[in-house]
Design goal:
346 residues; 8-stranded parallel beta barrel; 13 helices; TIM Barrel
Length: 346
């Protein structure tokens, strides 16, 4: 398993990370993702560790803390020092005006709660799950810096920030000498390439590594969707597709056609190729995979066992390209002074 440096930090992470939103499934939304319990979770962690993947991602709001509890129970079957654990806070956890956001009050409560639910003394990577525009950036970052100095958090990361939100946060950390965001958990897939417009160049410039969530485009790139065929009778897409970013049918079919072509060339599955494409892209430190069962997990883990060629990546790039928004289309007309990030990371 390849390990990569997480942004401008000393932390090395495997190129694949197991997301645990499928653990618990005690709320209506997350029940559609999965209902994995402690025993099954421990087995999945063991499979990951055998493959060299020791990075596991959760969040306080996944099943309102139950995902963390299940992961914590599964972790007891292994040595804590062999594991890298990521969790998050910011979104609403319970009711009340102060049960949401990135304020000092909420974050201190959520850090302690996550440590308790996970059954650990420290969190390796702690994300702000979204940007809180109502809390001063200084308040959020000073709280996180204190937790780092106390040893409760090792590294901090952002998630779903805009470019200026992240840049402002990095500037505040630099000004006061506080812990800085070394990672940015982002949505990025062959049917969702907005990350490349601004956040990827920013990551390259500022040393912020990408941790990619929903790499299969909210389940659209699992290989279950085919041109001219209905959705399978049993599919998470029936419950979740409407809550994610929408993708035009013809664009999706064009991407899937290209994925099937490349998959046929190298004897791989459609989701393996979709994950492999991401691993060839600049700034990507790790890709967060999900799995409802052992078969899905083993199939996704195999994405790290091969490397696409530049020609294959170019074919997928061409099939998934969409018009970009302003000012990016204007800047791309002046690439002599606004060069694009490399299209391939070998």
């Amino acid at each position: 398993m390849e390990f990569r440096q997480l942004g401008k930090s000393g932390l090395q992470v495997p190129v694949l990370c197991l997301g645990t939103a499928t653990f618990g499934g005690t709320t209506e939304f997350f029940r559609a993702w999965g209902t994995t319990g402690v025993e099954e979770a421990a087995r999945l962690l063991g499979i990951c560790l055998e493959a060299g993947v020791n990075f596991f991602d959760t969040a306080d709001v996944y099943s309102q803390g139950v995902s963390e509890e299940v992961l914590g129970g599964a972790m007891r079957s292994f040595r804590r020092e062999d594991l890298l654990i990521s969790t998050k806070a910011t979104f609403a956890f319970g009711e009340g005006a102060n049960q949401v956001g990135s304020s000092r009050l909420h974050l201190m409560r959520q850090i302690e709660g996550s440590l308790r639910r996970l059954g650990t003394d420290y969190i390796d990577v702690y994300h702000m799950h979204g940007f809180d525009a109502l809390t001063p950036v200084e308040e959020t970052l000073s709280t996180l810096d204190t937790a780092v100095r106390q040893g409760k958090i090792r590294y901090i990361a952002a998630s779903n920030f805009s470019g200026w939100h992240l840049q402002k946060s990095l500037g505040v950390s630099e000004r006061y000498g506080w812990a800085r965001y070394v990672g940015h958990q982002v949505y990025y897939s062959l049917v969702g390439r907005d990350y490349e417009w601004e956040l990827m160049p920013q990551g390259l410039s500022e040393g912020v590594g990408a941790l990619v969530w929903s790499p299969l485009g909210w389940g659209r790139l699992t290989g279950k969707i085919r041109r001219g065929q209905p959705l399978p009778a049993v599919s998470r897409l029936h419950e979740t597709a409407e809550s994610g970013p929408q993708v035009a049918d013809e664009h999706l079919y064009r991407v899937v056609d290209a994925l099937e072509e490349v998959a046929g060339e190298i004897g791989r599955t459609v989701p393996q190729v979709a994950l492999g494409w991401l691993l060839c892209k600049p700034t990507v430190a790790t890709v967060i995979i999900g799995a409802r069962n052992e078969q899905q997990l083993r199939d996704n883990l195999a994405a790290a066992s091969f490397l696409l060629t530049p020609e294959q990546v170019a074919k997928l790039d061409a099939a998934s390209t969409v018009p970009v928004a302003y000012p990016y289309w204007h800047q791309r007309g002046f690439q002599v002074r606004n060069p694009l990030p490399a299209a391939y990371r070998g």
